[in-house]
Every structure is written in C-alpha cells, then in structure tokens.
Amino acid sequence: MKYDDNNIFAKILRGEIPCDKIYEDEFVLSFYDINPQKKIHALVIPKGKYVDLDDFNTNASHDEIVGLMKGITIVSKKLGVSSIDGKGYRALANISEDGGQEVPHLHFHLFGGEKVGKMVL
Ligand code: 5GP
Predict the structure, then answer these.
(1) Ligand 1: which of 22, 23, 44, 102 to mutate, most ligand atoms within 8 Å of CB?
(2) pLDDT tens readout for residues 100-109
(3) Which 8-state DSSP code applies to residue 89?
(4) Which of 6, 39, 102, 121 is deepest in the core (most CB within 10 A)?
(5) What is d(CA 86, CA 20) in angstroms, rounded to the nearest whole number?
(6) Residues framing ligand 1 (Cβ under 6 A)
C-alpha cells in the first residue's frame, strides 16, 4: 500500500492536529490514544512515512528501526509500566487488513496500568 499523507497520524506529526504528547525524539512520537481501551493506552509511532510494520522492517534504516524499538521502552519507562521498574504492559501492532489496522501509519499500542487480560484471538 502506498503511504497516504492525509492519514490522521501524518497530520499529528505535522502538527496539524493536536495530540496529548508523552515523548518525542528524532525517531518517534508518542501520545495517548484518543479512545483508550485500558487504564493506560499509549501509541508510539515512527516519524518516517511507513504504512505498517512490514513496510517499516523492509524499508526503514537500521537507525530508524532501533529508534522505534528503543522508543517503546523509553515510553514504557515514562509511563511507569516497564518491566524494569513497573508491572509490564502489552505492546501490539495491528498490521493491514486482516490485522485490523485502521490508521495506515505504523503504530504500536502500549496497554497497561492494569492486567490487560489474555490475547484476543
Ligand atoms: P489501529 O486500529 O489502526 O491499530 O489503531 C488506531 C488507533 O488510533 C485507535 O486506537 C484509535 O483510537 C486511535 N486514533 C484514531 N484517531 C486518533 C486521533 O486523532 N488521535 C489519537 N490520539 N488517537 C487516534
């Protein structure tokens, strides 16, 4: 799928739509999900234009990939849910049609602040 510059997260990255920001660096932006499914529901997105995880892992630079992976843990620490100093959380990426992805800009959901339950099948 070609990247759509008008997707909602692209607009958030450009500052055209506000977000409740948690963290930002060279590689990632993190903000709270507008429709939280758990006590803590954050999103972590790469700054580059990648539709989904497979697009990202195929086309992103090593620095971008490391930046996103490390960004997830930086955010988990900021939220107090990391396994290092908190109780843990679930990181989840929906990928494309069968994966139930709605916004076509790669994002990881971070769910925590409570037991998040079993995986949905
Ligand atoms: P997906 O189903 O694509 O994995 O998840 C998209 C997520 O983006 C949903 O959890 C939805 O609530 C969230 N979302 C959609 N639009 C906005 C928005 O404008 N702001 C924020 N913060 N989250 C959004």
Answers:
(1) 102
(2) 999 999 999 9
(3) E
(4) 39
(5) 22
(6) 8, 17, 19, 31, 33-35, 94, 100-103
Q: Average pLDDT of the chain?
A: 97
Burial class of 65 by CB neighbour count within 10 A (0 to 12, 13 to 18, 19+):
middle
What residue spans of 41-94 are helical by DSSP H? 53-59, 62-79
Q: Is residue 37 exposed (0-12), middle (13-18) or buried (19+ Cβ within 10 Å)?
A: exposed
Cα four-point dihedral sign 89, 95, 97, 103: positive
The CA angle 62-17-51, to the nearest 5 degrees, is 35
Record the tokens describing residue 80, joined without a space: 């107090």
- C-beta of residue 73 within 8 angstroms of C-beta of residue 25: no
72-81 pLDDT, tens digit each: 999 999 999 9
Structure-block tokens of residue 25: 């660096």
> In sequence order, what are the residues at sequence separation of 6 or more whose Cβ sits closer than 8 angstroms to the Cβ of residue 93?
52, 53, 99, 106, 107, 108, 109
Residue 87 has a CB neighbour count (10 Å cut-off) of: 12
